[in-house]
Amino acid sequence: MPNFPNLRSAHQPMPEHAMPIPDVGVVPRTRLAGARVLVVGDVMLDRYWFGDVNRISPEAPVPVVHVQKQEDRLGGAANVARNAVALGAQTGLLCVVGHDEPGERVVQLLQDSGVAAHLERDPTLLTTIKLRVLSRQQQLLRVDFENTPAHEILLAGLARFDELLPSHDVILMSDYAKGGLTHVTQMIAHAHAAGKPVLVDPKGDDWERYRGATLITPNRAELREVVGQWKSEEDLHARVAALRASLDFKALLLTRSEEGMTLFTDAGALHASAVAREVYDVSGAGDTVIATLAVMLGAGLSLVEAVGLANRAAGIVVGKLGTATVNYDELFQ
């Protein structure tokens, strides 16, 4: 997920050795409606409890939250799919959820959002929940509930992936390290054989599993975990070039917080400056970036054009609370 700071970010100087990404005009709705995106990955339920804090607990030095409102939103790969739908694309989602209350809630929210859900149900799985407690729009606490899917369910998901592959234009892998992408290497190979571009939002330091991906979208911390700390822009470019060559990545999009994002390809590096705006909440910003990229590529735009629009979408979504989407009118207003 891209990392955006909780501050007002002004346009930053463009990094050395990078050319600017040109601005993109309006893309017709009908063109985006023709994009067919398949999202595969880890799904979770983002559960929000909103309340007031007026006292400290007598049991421990912690605030007491009087919860007055609850809200559920799709998280993880489901939020990526929801973002793609918000832009007007035909969007499928392949994932695993449990036979439990949060799993049923995910199913309901997917139906409401217009995502074509292709779900594998695992009776032993606790559907991942990220419970956030907020007061006056500030997050006080997050509590996670999760475990990993069964091997048999994941194999069934791989078979379903092969069935869905021909009917989609772009494949998007949303990895949150919850086990849903155990067979990601095989999925990328199958997509590559079918001539489908594969976009990956990575997790962890084992990127060998993403070998052959068309585009990978790390933030600075995620890239640093894999290639080490770079000492200069020239050093960064050299490390990214070596990484791309060793793992056969066609392109790498580095999201750089207040510095915007830089696209690395065989043609060189292109940079999009951060959009100046008050940053309110970074939750799910990476979901919006990669979903926008997938939709635009599925609509036939170039990778450079897609990155320009993804950068614009990121600047919009960080001004919203929690996991949120950017719709067509917001992106092209």
Automatic annotation (TrEMBL):
Q: What is its EC number?
A: 2.7.1.167
The UniProt entry, under Gene3D superfamilies, shows: 3.40.1190.20
Protein name as annotated: D-beta-D-heptose 7-phosphate kinase
Q: Which UniProt keywords apply?
A: Kinase, Transferase
Q: Membrane-spanning residues where?
A: none
What SUPFAM superfamilies does UniProt report for this protein, alphabetically?
Ribokinase-like
InterPro entries reported for this sequence: PfkB_dom, RfaE_dom_I, Ribokinase-like
Please give the NCBIfam families that the UniProt record associates with this protein. Answer: rfaE_dom_I (TIGR02198)
A single GO cellular-component term from the record reads:
cytosol
The answer, when asked if Methyltransferase is one of the entry's keywords, is: no
The answer to whether keyword Transferase applies is: yes
Q: Which gene encodes it?
A: rfaE
Residue ranges of the Carbohydrate kinase PfkB domain?
Answer: 36-325
Domain of life per record: Bacteria
Pfam families (UniProt xref):
PfkB (PF00294)
Entry's Gene Ontology molecular function annotations = heptose 7-phosphate kinase activity; heptose-1-phosphate adenylyltransferase activity; phosphotransferase activity, alcohol group as acceptor
